[in-house]
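User: Please run a holo structure prediction.
Assistant: Happy to. Please share the sequence and the ligand.
User: Here you go; the ligand is xanthosine-5'-monophosphate.
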Amino acid sequence: MQGEQADEITGQSTMVNTEKFITQAIAEIKTAAGNDKVVMALSGGVDSSVCAALAARAIGDRLISIYIDTGLMRKGETDRIKTIFSGIRLQIVDAGDEFLAALKGITDPEAKRKAIGERFIRVFEREAKKQGARCLLQGTIYPDRIESEGGIKSHHNVGGMPLHMEFSRVIEPIRDLYKDEVREVAGALDLPKEIQHRMPFPGPGLAVRVLGEVTREKVAVIREANWIVEDELVEEYRPWQCFAALLGLGTGVKGDNRIHGWIVAIRAVNSRDGMTADPLEIPFERLTRIGSRITADIPSVARVVYDITAKPPATIEYE
Ligand code: XMP
């Protein structure tokens, strides 16, 4: 937290700093918004959820949160968002077909990110315009700024790309926080535990967990496999992140037939800020159980592997 170093000097508890941060952030949003309406893209991750909660406290109904269903979200995500944020002004946009069309034929990872980012901006602008909002609220956190400024990859957060729309102000209340600090704020704001402890999920969604071209079928396969991995690992092991990725096709045997089926990787890592990461030590029986569930529940999967690479040299995501 901005005052984290001061902790050692002043002996203030982190919670005192957290409360202070919340008070300051609410004041900052109030001042920046003035009497205008504010729009934000709500993904349901801890960053955007904390921003929405802060802004709802600061300006109430003048905050309009827009959730874009890209069709690249995890299983059950849209319903979950509807339930959790039933108390705030939330607009849900179903844009799955639009995103799939934009991704057709694209295999290069950065080109995929760009296509998704651009589509995201278009959809967001279209919806934001309807609202007549003059301010934009963003859940950018400190590591996002470092990675974007360093040119490591293009983040698809709305801030990562030029908006054609004119906003008179952009508010980034959690721009100086690390992820663990954002989680603390989420706790202090009484957001559901589920959000507080939510794993990071990349803006481009399941698209960066499918190597090569993104198709409806591949997304459906990886969504189901991802759900199984989360079901087996999240509660018990509390990893920084765990998920499934679709690597390509390989040979397998199902029933009496040799098949050409999907190869799915399980990725589970621990990390502080996503900049470095270590693979999680998972008991072998648990890994084989996940493999059996994935191949049994998804007929087109032939093979499941566990990724044991740290970051660096690998990244956390696959693209
Ligand atoms: P990598 O794969 O670069 O990921 O080791 C580090 C952390 O960032 C997340 N990530 C993204 N988040 N847009 C995002 O908002 C992106 O394009 C993106 N790519 C990776 C990743 O899930 C991990 O937590």
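Residues 113, 153, 155-157, 200, 202-204, 208, 241, 274, 311, 315-317 surround xanthosine-5'-monophosphate (CB under 6 Å).
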